[in-house]
């Protein structure tokens, strides 16, 4: 019993480490990308966190009136951004552990991921133009994909069993719902037997 308890503790410790690291890497990727985007587009390097922090603290009217970069809105957004990404990292690491134990779940989790991404972009298109403008929406979208790629790569590297489980998990999940046997060919066509 003590061995199982120790094993569970190691699993949670490792999940915590991987999740927090993945979240930190994702947040860092977004921050560096937006810093570069702002700088190269001629804006203040911290224009994005200042705008989003002002939006959080003062609302859309303050953003429409014009944003000046100050420490408080940048700090508020940075903390919020960090907490969101650390939480996403933990959720993603726990999900990866779950997929390792039950590979067919990938067939449920991947569509949920893509639905989340689609919802994010829908929200971004709906509210983002008010805050950013059309060119900046592209930068935020790229930042989101960059974060997903960095976080996913980190977890993929640290979970080599996924390299086997993900492809077979997807196939196994659809194996039971496929209307035809996976070894189906024209010689086995049931309509031929019915006609003959």
Task: Output the keywords.
196 residues, mainly alpha, 8 helices, 0% strand, elongated
The strand count comes to: 0
Which class of secondary structure composition applies to the elements?
Answer: mainly alpha
Q: Give the ordered list of helices and strands.
A: HHHHHHHH
Amino-to-carboxy terminus distance: 63 Å
- Helix tally equals 8
What features would you describe in this structure?
It is a single chain. By secondary structure, the chain is an all-alpha fold. 81% of the residues lie in helices and 0% in strands. The longest helix is centred in the first third of the chain and has 39 residues. It is elongated, with a radius of gyration of 23 Å. It starts with a helix and ends with a helix. About 8% of the residues have low confidence.
Give me the secondary-structure topology:
Layout: H1 2-40, H2 47-58, H3 60-65, H4 71-101, H5 106-131, H6 134-158, H7 162-175, H8 190-195
Helix pairs in contact: 1-4, 1-6, 2-4, 5-6
A few lines on this structure:
81% of the residues lie in helices and 0% in strands. It is built from eight helices and no strands.
């Amino acid at each position: 019993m003590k061995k199982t308890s120790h094993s569970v503790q190691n699993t949670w410790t490792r999940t915590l480490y991987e999740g927090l690291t993945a979240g930190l890497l994702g947040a860092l990727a977004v921050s560096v990308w937006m810093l570069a985007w702002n700088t190269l587009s001629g804006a203040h390097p911290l224009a994005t966190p200042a705008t989003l922090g002002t939006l959080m603290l003062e609302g859309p009217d303050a953003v429409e009136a014009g944003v000046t970069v100050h420490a408080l809105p940048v700090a508020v957004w940075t903390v919020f951004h960090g907490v969101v990404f650390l939480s996403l990292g933990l959720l993603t690491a726990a999900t990866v552990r779950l997929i390792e134990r039950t590979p067919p779940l990938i067939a449920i989790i991947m569509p949920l991921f893509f639905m989340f991404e689609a919802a994010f972009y829908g929200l971004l298109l709906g509210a983002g133009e008010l805050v950013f403008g059309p060119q900046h929406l592209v930068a935020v979208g790229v930042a989101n994909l960059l974060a997903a790629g960095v976080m996913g790569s980190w977890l993929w590297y640290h979970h080599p069993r996924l390299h086997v489980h993900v492809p077979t998990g997807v196939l196994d999940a659809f194996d039971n719902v496929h209307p035809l046997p996976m070894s189906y060919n024209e010689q086995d066509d049931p309509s031929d037997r019915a006609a003959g």
